[in-house]
Amino acid sequence: MSDSGYRSAIAAGLVFLASGAVLVLEILGIRLLAPYVGLTLETTTTVIGTVLAGIAAGAALGGRLADRVADRRLVAGLLAAGGLLALTTVPLLRLLGGALQGGGDVAALVITLVALFPCATVLSAVTPTVVKLQLRDLETTGSVVGRLSAWATAGALAGTFATGFVIVPLVATDVAILGVGAVLLAIGIAMLVRHGANSRKGAAGAVAVAALLVGATAAVGAPCDVESTYHCARIVEDPQNPTGRALVLDDLQHSYVDLGDDTHLRFDYTRWIGDAIDAMAAPDEALDAVFLGGGGFTLPRYVAATRPGSESRVLEVDSALIDLNRTRLGLETGPDLAVVIGDARVTLRREPPSSAELVVGDAFGGRSIPWHLATAEFISDVRRVLRRDGLY
Fold first, then answer.
1. Domain 8-221 has CATH 3.30.70
2. CA 90, CA 28: separation in Å to the nearest integer?
């Protein structure tokens, strides 16, 4: 069965849309996984590899389907099916993530294979199908394939940049994924109707399934109190301490705050740093301190409580954490405890020379210190800020 193709602009728009949607789902999928298996190099690699496998499988599948059924309704059906699969992403991933939480790299692979691979495969079948419909003769095959491949790549680039610079900072991950699925489904159904498919019952069924999936997304709920640009953050109460609160970022407990005692240091490493601070100057002597990373502000609170009159500046990249600290963890900022929003690699350079007796490195990206805060150049900036005989 054959069918005439699309106008060039429509063909370009279809492959642009499908490829862009795949990359949006890939990046957002990494964020969805983080609360269950962490945000690590291995997690990111697993998602990228799985989606690339889906793209390859979709290209092969789309080519075979196009050779058998060169019909515009096939493209429409692929878009609608891709939209429905996108709508399954959030509930599937959260249900599997909850069941496999803590399962490490194997769990990440299983979750992405179930939740992301099918959608990436179906949407990636759109481009070869559209290409087949646009082919007229062998003399123009190269230019048709090249032009549509370029538009597909442009869509992937647009999806990547739009997600990183616009969608993630402004829209919740589940809402963004639902939006992508709804757009794909709506366009697919509209194309089916336009191309004469007897699809009223099918369209109604697809809409009903989509509504159920939206309801399922709402039912499983988000694991975050706050979804920031960088983290899925939540506050967990300590069942053994009525005033104890833990700040959990993605899948890791990053900070512990005792709302009734700012000198309470729960983690071993914070106690070690507290001991070093206690030993560096006479008791109750005020200090000028710079903290690289805020988290739950455990150590800045400790310095304020044990050394009244100290002036602390906290360099924190995630502004949403500051708001969460203020609303849920009782943080009060002011002249004695100032916050500078931005990456410490950049903001530390703005600190005056010899302005601090104490610099505390307490910034973490997942399970490790961000690499750019462990370079010789960064340590040179720390030395510049520290006073003689200061402590880092």
1. no
2. 10
